[in-house]
Amino acid sequence: MAAFPKTSLEQWRVLQTIVEAGGYAQAAARLHRSQSSVSYAVTRLQAQLGIDLLVPQGRRMVLTDAGRALLAEAAPLLESLQKLEARAGALRSGWEAEVRLAVDSLFPLPCLMAALRHFAAQCPATRLQMHEVVMSGADDALYQGQVDLAVATRVPPGFLGEWLLDACFLACAAPAHPLHALGRTLRPDDLVPWTQVVVRDSGTRQPRDEGWLGARQRWTVSHADTAVEVVESGLAFAWLPAHAIAARLEEGRLVPLPLAQGQVRRTALHLVMADPGRSGPAAQALADCLHQEAAARRGAG
pTM of whole model > 0.70? Predict the structure, then answer.
């Protein structure tokens, strides 16, 4: 049977406070305890360890080399305990321990990160479990009860959703691709002989293909980033998310295809709550953050 630790996190917290405050009296004031109890906690800690942790230096108490090394190892434990207590307080107040989010890969990453930063500030004690999905993968996550909310390319039957923003796709290819060598406006039949790359639907219930698929040869990949690399390498053309290739377009590494029709297409992204009537405050906070960042992106054009 494992033995119980001889020391307590309270003792290490007292030691940490003495070092931060500079002395016993200052630590006692910060901890709202008597100076004698603070002194006793450290004396007891040193006795239990059999080693000196603090020494006086002028009017301040400073760590010995051993004390510095040991406190450095104790600090993460103290931080973890504080987070645990904060989480318990949040649960006591009705905040969820965890929020589960499915987000389609078309949702702009900067927009998502900004929303998550705001969420983390509002709900520091709530864990986040995020599923990154493509097309009907969001449907599956909702139907299977895997998530509390989803950013999806459509609102599945049986759910309600709110529009967030439109993802814009641009038909493009590498500058040296033969399609650019034609030197004219392209028709659909011009695309047929050349390879198109598409991103695989991550759903399994009713996977779907979206976008022009008239090419004789199709390459299917699992991630949009991979599709971008395939197109930039000159191996294929594709309709790629405009927000993901803006820098490549500006630098000339990708060039829009001069299609007579269909050069640009748009896909709406919606926020879908799995069960609005039972959504907790943390799930609602995350939904609000996503709405706010989507609105800011729309406003920025």
Answer: no
